[in-house]
Design brief:
The structure holds two protein chains of two kinds. Chain A is mainly alpha-helical. Chain A is 74% helix and 0% strand. The chains are: A mainly alpha, B alpha+beta. At the A-B interface, helix 2 and helix 4 of A face helix 2, helix 3 and strand 3 of B.
Chain lengths: 220, 110
């Protein structure tokens, strides 16, 4: 006899509902598949055929997961735990890159002296842990899972990656300041500087919120 | 075979009508509807359970875990008073709809 409960649990791993609700759903679906499998056996089907026919009654695991999340209001919830905080944190990170320009009279970054540029970059990098912590905590308070907290914290890095991609498409070639001066291709250099390096302080900042085990607020 | 869009529209009526007769668990319900419609209405898990949960959330159904004749625990659904109030006009709407369709040329003898 297949372990239907385990089977369903594995397929519904992505289902984002409170654990008590998940248990109930898994138990019920496993019961359905178990009954269908046993009916197949009573009809003298071979176990493998009975199992295949029972699984065919699912109608697609992604569809099932999506339908449950829609019915359980998870999609609305994800807006609160992921999309809104992620958008705000990304926007704040991008806005912070513009703040020092106001201090120096709105001059373009490419015209700054290298020392000023260093101050801008370091100030920004030092603010990122705070934004990472803020994003993770916001998501956690809304009932976000760890994965959602992490994604919210990393939203600035995603936003920068998207900007980097857009720049690639729009520019198509390096501007004078990005010309190759060493063995590492300029695209890799920009990606490391603009996306990977900022990700480190963000991750450091969100660690305390992620470490708060067992304090996740269950969705109502 | 019946188009899935038509099935979707009528599934709620089928579920409420069958459960109005007696409480059933999900598999029994699916089997009952399939048998009584000669296999034309066949539910998958993805089409049945989200609908049952929705109807329960709306107050048309209630459920409880009980021991099935097989000796296993199954969740039984039954139609609530609110569900019965919803079912009567739903039946009428579908009957009127079928009657209207039958008046169309080509469907008169259907």
């Amino acid at each position: 006899m297949p372990d239907w409960r385990r089977f369903v649990g594995r397929r519904l791993r992505a289902l984002n509902v409170p654990s008590a609700r998940r248990d109930e759903i898994e138990r019920e679906l496993a019961g359905f598949l178990e009954d269908d499998y046993e009916k197949g056996l009573r009809e003298r089907k071979k176990p493998r055929a009975a199992m295949r026919d029972a699984i065919a009654r699912v109608g697609g695991w992604p569809e099932l997961t999506y339908a449950f999340e829609r019915e359980e209001g998870v999609l609305t919830s994800r807006l609160k735990t992921l999309w809104i905080p992620g958008f705000v944190v990304a926007l704040a990170a991008l806005a912070l890159t513009r703040l020092p320009h106001a201090r120096w009279g709105g001059i373009a970054m490419v015209r700054l002296e290298s020392q000023q540029l260093l101050v801008i970059v370091w100030t920004w990098l030092l603010m990122l842990p705070l934004l990472g912590a803020l994003g993770a905590e916001w998501s956690r308070r809304q009932g976000g899972a760890r994965r959602e907290q992490l994604l919210v914290s990393l939203a600035p890095a995603f936003a920068l990656a998207v900007l980097f991609g857009v720049m690639q498409v729009l520019l198509g070639h390096p501007s004078s300041q990005f010309t190759n001066r060493g063995p590492i291709p300029w695209r890799v250099m920009i990606f490391v500087n603009v996306v990977l390096i900022p990700s480190v302080p963000i991750l450091l900042g969100c660690l305390p919120a992620l470490a708060r085990r067992g304090e996740r607020l269950e969705r109502g | 075979m019946i188009d899935p869009a038509i099935k979707r529209g009528s599934a709620e009526l089928a579920v409420l009508s069958v459960l109005a007769a007696e409480p059933l668990h999900g598999y029994e319900l699916a089997q009952r509807i399939e048998r009584q419609t000669s296999g034309l209405l066949r539910f998958t898990l993805a089409s049945l359970y989200p609908m049952l949960y929705r109807l329960e959330r709306q107050g048309s159904l209630s459920s409880e875990w009980r021991t099935a004749p097989s000796g296993r625990q199954r969740r039984y659904y039954k139609v609530t008073a609110a569900g019965r109030r919803k079912l009567a006009p739903l039946r009428q709407q579908w009957l009127r709809y079928f009657q209207a369709l039958r008046q169309l040329p080509g469907l008169r003898n259907a």
